[in-house]
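[agent] plan:
  1. take the single chain provided in the ticket
  2. run structure prediction with default settings
  3. attach structure tokens to the ticket
  4. add a short note for the reviewer (M.T.)
[agent] executing step 1
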Amino acid sequence: MARFSLARHVARPPGQGASRRTLGTAVASAVVVVVLALSASVAGTQTASEPVVPAGGAKVEADDRLGTRWVRPGDAGAVTFSLRGVPQDVWLVDATFEVSVRSLTGPTRITLCEGTAVTRACERAAEPVAGRSTFTQTVEVLGERRTLTVQSSTAKAGVSVRLVGYTMLPAASVTTSPTSPSSEPPSGDEPTIPQDAPSVTAPPTAMPTDPSSGSSSPPRSNPTAGWPGPSNTGVPAGTRLTVHEGDLRITQDGTVIDGLEIRGLVRVEAKDVVIKNSLITGRPLTSSMGLVYVNGPGHSVTVQDSELYARHPSPHVMGVVGQNFTLERVNIHQVIDQVHIVGDNVVVKDSWLHHNLHFARDPNHNNTPSHDDNVQIQAGRNIRIVHNTMESTHNAAIQVTQDMGVVANLTVENNLLSNGGCTVNLAQKARGPLTGITLRNNRFTRTSTHGCAVIVSAPSFGGLSLSDNRWVRWTGSSWEAEPGTVAVIRS
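[agent] step 2 finished; step 3 output follows
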């Protein structure tokens, strides 16, 4: 990472108010840095007359293959580049480009957009230039798309574009028999399961790197050594799964879902629902939704021995959202927040929450970086978070906001907690001090951006019960607790 700025965002340090904020440097779960030319195609464009000298100093002759182009003003003069050399079996999250502008005929703004068209969203990030200049810009390039459009607002310019790095996630893949997807969610009182749905065998879970190492390479191993991880969460190996295409709406009390691969969203509108031994992967989203959503205070669900991840990663996808739910031995990854609590009576235990999605420009946060958490609590009482492995976030492993109501009677016990700006962030906001908050016997790795295990709004400090929360270090075979307890920062 030495020469390249890859979607790096530093937010306010602890102590600047108790409102929710991103407290971290944004480093996505899998980052690969490359030096790569782009090839360009646009009707009627001319090749700029001078060679390009990239930042690394190697002289590259300008021609059609290397992507130096005249960009004329306005939409009609925009140039579309095709990325070459990026692995085809990964999902791109964002890409960082070095743009060199020369032979400019007047002041202008240079816009970089994903895809083949200029949109208002990317126009807001346009770079003003008045002469020969070079700048770096990060663009969201979601999924498998491999195109970039460059526009000049008011002047003709010779523009060279070079891809210097990108953030990626391994492409999720499950080998199945072909099916005919259904675009309509089921409408009956009970889940609708196609009679001819194929069966597949649950794939092995992707495993992340040691959270103490700071590595941003693709998931490979997770030395949990007794903590929840790839060997003891998710769908048991060898389980036969029946494919369900489309959303699943559950309205019958006591429904049990066992051994499904659900290629859509699950909406729980009943009580005492059980989902077990199942894989839930969602669908493309244009607004924020959960892979599992518990709709209303009278409904409830228990999810056991299951895996949830976004087959179609986006800034809009969450894991489990709602209230009155219990998660046991659940593996949730490749979403913004794994657990999003908005009401009472929630238990998360023996689960592995890891490898959050993170976007440099998140439309849900005014195109600022994503505020990804393992667990976010906006409101609720009687919440227990016990014996989980929680890692890979940019904001916090556990974030309390009280955005939707009072948070009280929260127990966080015997968890392995990593990353975030401060790993646990307890912000009371305008609803008064937090009460009945217990943090005991938790283990914190030294991987938070600010070296901070717990930060709390100062008036809420008196409502905390703290005991035996310690830093740990990886010995090569297990996590070993260090002497003494972690300090709590008051903001």
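[agent] step 4 note for reviewer: The first strand starts at residue 31 and ends at 32.
[agent] ticket updated
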